[in-house]
Amino acid sequence: MTGPPPSEEARLAGLVQAHDRWRGRSVFNLLASENAVSPTARKYLSSDLAGRYTLPLEVVFHGETIDNSYTGTRYTDQIEALANAAAARVFRAKCATTRPLSGHIAALSAIVPLLPPKSRLLAIAPEEGGYDGYAPGFIPSLFGYTVRPLPADGPGFSVDADRAVATIREERPNAVVLGQSFFLFPYPLREIAEAAHAIDALVFYDASHVLGLIAGGEFQDPLREGADVVFGSTHKSFPGPQGGLLYTDREDLFAQLDPALVWRIFDNAHWNRIAGLAQTLLELERCGADYARTVVANAQGLARSLSDLGMPLIAESLGFTRSHQIHLDRPRLESSAHLRAGALARRLERQRLLIDLVGRIGTAEVTRLGLTPSDMPRLADLLVRAGLRSERVGVEVLAWRRTYSALRFA
């Protein structure tokens, strides 16, 4: 006769501990949408801030003149101010806010207050690597926006300057939204911004995937190249807790969007997250340039090694990538290896190597672990042996992974 089943609390504790062992110490994570958070930032995520509110208002509310709906916020408000100031320094922006709860919410926080209903948008279509959230059935449908595609049909979903400018002049949108989930190469942003501003259109730059690279001075510099508002996720190439931020040099735009956030886009901004994000920003002030440079060098080195070993990748003519991402050439994978990207990802997962099921490979987290370009041939060999040849390399992967116990660039 067996004993009683374990309590749900014990089961939960076991699941979390198992996850931490698996994802934190037993695999190489090459998911392009994830990164490792530093121990200090993690500590702040589990602080007392996790259950607290602050709501500065400086209004007459329910008959009371107040400057904040809550008391006890003397440190919370200072933490937010520190985080916003750090974001402004890191991105060399006049205005920044760390309140958005995610990259998607950051997009809403920028676009919705600045564009009235029935505005016309240009955005890169999902089938050309664009973010699904800007497709007709998602954010645009909620606010009555009309969205038309901005072409990104060059190698590796790259945007051609002449085609982009011609499309802007033909469509005459109220705003151009630049953002991709499959994001390998910088945009011809100066040309796009010049064409958009000539018709009084705004340029929004969704940096969700490349925010950490921009923070380190790699990839491109959206504000100096003409973007009006930049926003993005803080947990992809940017190595912070899950969340979002936005920044701009346009004080007139910030004066419109910042007051529109509370009670419209969100309420509590999760102050433990903001403390963790502030810590990550401070880390990037110290070592962001070296981190971003190494992420890109690792991606380029891994791509070359994978290609040399027979893994089919896109955008070879452009050097494969200038970001943290590498993309499988899915049609060639299917024709040469009779293997879909999702099946390849599942095969790799069984050998402790994680990529996503749509064929993206990312180097941000392994860079945080301490891998350098000299390690990329070894990593590529494991990926090819496990993925294309079905070899059991999990023991090798685990032994190598356990040699990394502390994060770099933290």
Descriptive tags:
two-stranded parallel ribbon; about 10% strand; Aspartate Aminotransferase, domain 1; seven-stranded mixed sheet; about 400 residues; globular; alpha/beta; about 45% helix; 16 helices
How many E-type strands?
Answer: 13
Shape: globular
Averaged pLDDT, please?
Answer: 96
Distance between the termini: 51 Å
Order of helices and strands: HEHEEHEHEHEHEHEHHEEHHEHHEEHHH
Largest sheet: 7 strands, mixed
| Count of alpha/pi helices | 16
Secondary structure elements and their pairing?
Layout: H1 8-25, E1 28-29, H2 39-45, E2 56-61, E3 64-68, H3 74-90, E4 95-97, H4 103-114, E5 120-123, H5 139-143, E6 146-149, H6 161-171, E7 175-178, H7 189-198, E8 202-206, H8 211-215, H9 222-225, E9 229-233, E10 244-248, H10 251-257, H11 271-308, E11 325-327, H12 330-337, H13 341-349, E12 353-354, E13 360-362, H14 364-369, H15 376-387, H16 394-401
Parallel strand pairs: 1-12, 5-6, 5-7, 7-8, 8-9
Antiparallel strand pairs: 2-3, 4-10, 9-10, 11-13
Helix pairs in contact: 2-11, 3-11, 6-7, 11-15
Describe this structure in words.
The chain has 410 residues and is α/β, with parallel strands linked by helices. The protein has a domain at 287-401: Aspartate Aminotransferase, domain 1 (Alpha-Beta Complex), CATH 3.90.1150. It has 16 helices and 13 strands. It has helices spanning 8-25, 39-45, 74-90, 103-114, 139-143, 161-171, 189-198, 211-215, 222-225, 251-257, 271-308, 330-337, 341-349, 364-369, 376-387, 394-401, and strands at residues 28-29, 56-61, 64-68, 95-97, 120-123, 146-149, 175-178, 202-206, 229-233, 244-248, 325-327, 353-354, 360-362. The protein has a seven-stranded mixed beta sheet, sandwiched between helices. Strands 1-12 form a two-stranded parallel sheet. The N and C termini lie far apart (51 Å). The model has no long low-confidence stretch (mean pLDDT 96).
